[in-house]
Fold:
Amino acid sequence: MDGSTELFKTSLNPVHRACGAKMVDFGGWDMPVQYSGLIDEHNTVRKAVGLFDVSHMGEIEIRGPEAVRFTDYVTTNSVEKLKIGQAQYSGLLYEHGGFVDDILVHKVTDEHLFICVNASNQEKDYAHICELNRFDAEVEFASERYAQIAVQGPKALETLRKLTPVDIAAIHYYWFQDGEVAGVPARIARTGYTGEDGFEVYCAPSEAPSVWRKLTEAGAEFGIKPCGLGARNTLRLESKMALYGHEIHASITPLEADLAWIVKFNKGDFVGREALLKQQEAGVRRKLIGFDMRGRGIGRDGYEVNLDGSPAGWVTSGSPSPTLNKNIGLCYLPAQHAQVGRKIEVIIRNQAVEAETVPTPFYKRGK
Structure:
């Protein structure tokens, strides 16, 4: 992006700057990468409660008599099985089986689906869905109508319940309810990208600064802190949650990315189904697996991975783990070698550094 192109800003941008956040260009958005520091923010979410601005994420709404059938056709998971008020993690695929995006699908009514998509993919996703529309359904690009605030951590419930008449304790994981937060109409979803309990609050962008401020006040007794994209990344990595452009992209399929569980072959036709069936029959050639560094160094995104001294794969994400106090990562390896306990080498600054494949997720709540 050249210097003359202005970055997109969420309605909370002035709040971040007033808090002294370190801001970065994230896919064309001016976003906070950290406030008090990545490790401090990460640990706050693991132990108490953190607040994230995720308003850069996109929203697409599908309405009409065939909204469910259409959404079922363009996504991998089974929309037909969703109950009203339920959400699911899913994939938008190309015909060849690679990812357009990974998404969250929410069933608002029998004729209304609400889809949350990745920030940098929202226009592409919308165009992709519209191009496939042969159904009695309308597709709306709705991102400008929503801000999104994530309240994450073991004290998220106690923080948010102060501000809403909705019985949020009764909302199960991957369910949602419409109501109010801090007197503002909001959609409250018990979802998240941290591996902790938490909620994502969707509201009008104009109301987001007020909601943010009141959440900060409500969580003060628990030590709530604003958190940036840096902590969001280390939290999701510890929990082995895929990041578009890293673990998944147009040339990676769900079967390779250890996401076969979001593919429901028995639901009938969907975009990419034939390609995935062929891949399943032929056998997947590469698979995603976790690793710990055994030697000194961090296996960063894009680093080459060797097996027995020969190039065999690449790192998709890698970082120090604040929770586990070791250097962890995810990588692709040939399927026959993607087994726990394999000795591998990560090439760091032209040096082969020892690592070993390990079970994932690296961190699981309650362990």
